[in-house]
Amino acid sequence: MREGYEGTGPGAITPDGCAVELYARLPVGDEPDIIAGAVPAGARILELGSGVGRMTHALLERGFTVTAVDESAEMLERVCGARTICSPVERLVLGETFDVVLLASFLVHAGDAEVRRGMLRTCVRHLAKGGCVLIQREGEDWHTHVPRERVDPAGFTVRIVSSEPVGDGVDSVHAEYVFPDATWTQTFRTRPLTRRQFEEALGEEGLKVDRYLTEDRTWVRAVPVADG
């Protein structure tokens, strides 16, 4: 387990505190539709941090070709129909490029700034000419509107119990996922980024915002600075 990360509950727990059984239960939201609306039909997608394939499977159903990358072999065992690669995102070198590189699950907010830089470099390294990077950001009140909870229509409750500063601009977040038959918790570190800080982080690695895809600016289409 990485320092500052922890997970509890039934089944395997990954080094960043994610429970495989939990993520296998969580439903996919509107993310696949957001992605499909921002990229060419049938695009080749490199999905970084795919987990159990919640979005992978939905993207395959929409006609995309997906290569799913995750550092957890236990997560990747749940992925069906896509090529899978077990690797830390920040160290991935495939020697090939893709129409779309997908960095979802708030990975751009990695508590370790060097890990974030490595992830963004991975995005650029694997991007085909004329391609784009799709990034999912945290909501802009994500760390201030705490504690909070949401009851999902599927019948479980998600609670963000606390978000506490641990130094150097990083917060430790504790979350709970309560199902009728099981409860999981996750503690992880994340670095809040204002819109300006986020755009500066992209610029450091040669990327720029092409457009924000959602009204709350949590989904972003980015392109290489050199493309424009």
TrEMBL record:
InterPro entries the record matches: Methyltransf_11 (IPR013216), SAM-dependent_MTases_sf (IPR029063)
Ranges of residues in domain Methyltransferase type: 46-135
UniProt superkingdom: Bacteria
GO MF annotations in UniProt: S-adenosylmethionine-dependent methyltransferase activity
Species, as recorded: Streptomyces viridosporus (strain ATCC 14672 / DSM 40746 / JCM 4963 / KCTC 9882 / NRRL B-12104 / FH 1290)
TM spans (from-to): none
GO BP, sorted A to Z: methylation
The protein, known as: Methyltransferase type 11 domain-containing protein
Keyword match S-adenosyl-L-methionine: yes
Keywords: Methyltransferase, S-adenosyl-L-methionine, Transferase
